[in-house]
Structure of Probable 2-phosphosulfolactate phosphatase:
Amino acid sequence: MIDVRFIPTNIKDYQAIVVIDVLRATTTMVTAISNGAQFLVPVETVEQARSYKQDGFLLCGERGGVKPEDFDLGNSPLEYTKDVVENKKLVITTTNGTKALAKAREHSKNIILGAFVNFSKTLEYIKKFNDILFVCSGNDGEESFEDTQVAGAFIEKLVSFRKYELSDSALISLNFWKSIKRPTFTGKHSRVLKTYGFEDDIIFSQQLDIFNTVAIYDADKVIKGE
Ligand code: MLT
């Protein structure tokens, strides 16, 4: 069975859940892991993130798209270069993405981060599961044009390997993706990010397979999956 939530509500138990916040939280976390961060702890609030400072963590994330003043890094994947994150412990809080991860965590032992930048490696990892739920993080309770593309792209590949039962939301995602065929980030959040000057993040996040890693949320940490 393959199912999709366009926003992170009504999540049920699944063998595997792929959480998608392609602009920008999951792309950013995948980038951090791919560039050698030890792990990231996703938390829901800015205050929770601050409590990690004394343990030598880099404080990461955003509110309203921008870095809280006392944080080390914002939510731009371009900031998470090797020289900045290698061997570091990170704590991250974002408006939608880290909240969606927290919700997913209650419903599966296998939580995977979905993005385009490591698409093929993630596909390789998730194809062993029979029951997969894609959870789009959305934007403050609204559906995301971009997250839904990632779900549809995964479903297109998964159904080419074998037969899955598809929910209506999975069918909608699949047919939507087939109608556009390639990452096309022109939704509301893309437009908002552009006004903040984050156009390069949009370009970065649309890239396919620049990383050969999979990022999983295991216990309380995002780490590299094997
Ligand atoms: C989020 O988690 O809401 C997003 O990643 C927001 C952003 O683009 O910074």
Notes: The two ends are 24 Å apart (CA to CA). The chain has a mean pLDDT of 97. Residues 21, 23-25, 62, 65, 75, 94-97, 137, 193 surround D-malate (CB under 6 Å). The chain is about 35% helix and 20% strand.
